[in-house]
Amino acid sequence: MKAADNEAELASVIAHEIAHIAARHGVKQLRQTLLAQGLATAAGVDDSVAVQIGVELALRRPKSRQAEFEADQIGLETLGRAGYAQYSAITFMQKLLKQASPPSFLSTHPATSARISQMKQMINPEFAYNGDGLNERRYQVIVNRLVP
Ligand SMILES: [Zn+2]
């Protein structure tokens, strides 16, 4: 929340993560891992094993390039439909790339530069800079209240 300059940037991250869930990337990755490790049988899989590996995948393993590009695309559409300025997704990622020590969640999100290029091509420049959530002052007042 503090890394974002405005509500639209924060919304872009949430829209991207919602897209991973909507596209079932985690479930697909979990299924592949369970099969690869021989942990899934015809009878199914032990719930506690599935949860343990699911948490491990979510927190530490990089997602595939393809999953990231798909989540970016769906996320941008969601962001635009919600009324936020779509360009905020790009400004946020560019800012993270410039940091000396990028946030840890970026390590599970490969190919940041390529993703930025793709997103630039996906958004309509006529509308990209228009939308809600661009008031930086108001955003910072609220975030400082929530995260002192
Ligand atoms: Zn992602």
Write up what this structure looks like.
With 148 residues, this protein is an all-alpha fold. The chain has a domain at 7-22 and 63-146. It starts with 6 loop residues before the first helix and ends with a helix. Helix 1 (7-22) crosses helix 4, helix 2 (25-36) crosses helix 3 and helix 5 (87-98) packs antiparallel against helix 6. The protein has 8 helices and no strands. The structure holds zinc ion (ZN). Zinc ion is lined by residues 16, 20, 63, 68, 71, 109.
Elements, N to C (H/E): HHHHHHHH
List unreliable stretches of 5+ residues.
none
Bound molecules: zinc ion
Helix share, percent = 55-70%
**So what's the overall shape?**
elongated
Cα end-to-end separation:
11 Å
Contiguous helical run count: 8
Backbone structural class: mainly alpha
Backbone CA Rg: 17 Å
Largest sheet: none
The percent range for strand residues is under 5%
Number of strand segments: 0
The mean pLDDT is: 87
What oligomeric state do these chains adopt?
Answer: single chain
